[in-house]
User: What shape does this take?
Amino acid sequence: MMIRLKNILLVAAMSVATFASAQTADSVVTLLFAGDIMGHDSQIAAAYNDSTKTYDYTDCFRYICPYVEKADLAVANLEVTFAGPPYKGYPQFSSPDPLATAVRDCGFDILLTTNNHSCDGGLKGVARTLDVLDSLKITHTGTFHDSAEWRRTYPLIYNVKGLKLAILNYTYGTNELPTPKGTVVNRIVKQNIISDIAAAKRQNPDLIIACMHWGIEYDTMPSRTQIQQAEMLKKQGVDLIIGSHPHVLQPMEMDTAANQFLVYSLGNFVSAQRTAPRDGATVVNIKLTKRNGQKPKIEADYQLTYVHYPKVGDKRLFYIVPVADVEAGVIEPIKSDNWGRLHQYAKEAREVMGRNVNVPERK
Assistant: This one.
């Protein structure tokens, strides 16, 4: 009888311990955010295969893909349209569709489509860009075929490993090009954003993320307007604020007390802009830890990336390379006449990132 009672007590104790363990178990989700995906004329030329008469951007991403693939959710700013031929770069971008395929195959899950180049291709550019992404099963937000689609799909609610994320996306403008009739291109309008945040909250997400296309081009410090808009977003309850547009790095801030994270600008993930400091960027890694049903704890770090630009034959190629991997000798892309610039860029970028608040570099 005593042995049986001990066994019952042991089973009960094990059940309690198992229940307690389940209650305190962490749910961990990793996010990665990358900056501007551009498509200048020289990038289009680099992707073209004279033999097959086709375009292939795979090699451009091959050094960074292992990091993108590791993230549970990877997001980037798509700053081109897929308006179809003729393909062209600045000032009104239309990239070949294989760029979207390469981005997807690299591991990106969501592309942000509202920025100052959203309307470059007019109605065809807005609509066809979304059609291409849909055909490749790439989730997107920021621009919409029509208001019905906007009402149905915005704010974007994205579930990843049990965490429910609300993702918002806005631009300061579209280079004075009008929004094509019938389409929706999200603009930075305070009252609209406040309304969208309220709509997101009604969905009971674990976190709200606002991706903002804002700021002054080529300025490594945030503008007064950026700072004011960031404060507004934080006050309204946005947890992650991810900025793009300046084409250069701007500082990041992790408010550990408020559990809110802010990136003013991620820089050029890939572009043909070579004037310093536009030739590189950073990817941001975010770890979300949810415990006992509470709001996820946010932790963040960054990795510097550089757009390596070697000349092979009569063609310039483009490779996104993780700076720390080059410095550690883990990878060695094709060396060229601009190889030393990578190391100079790293020095300059770390000076900017030295203004970060509680956001270290991952090495």
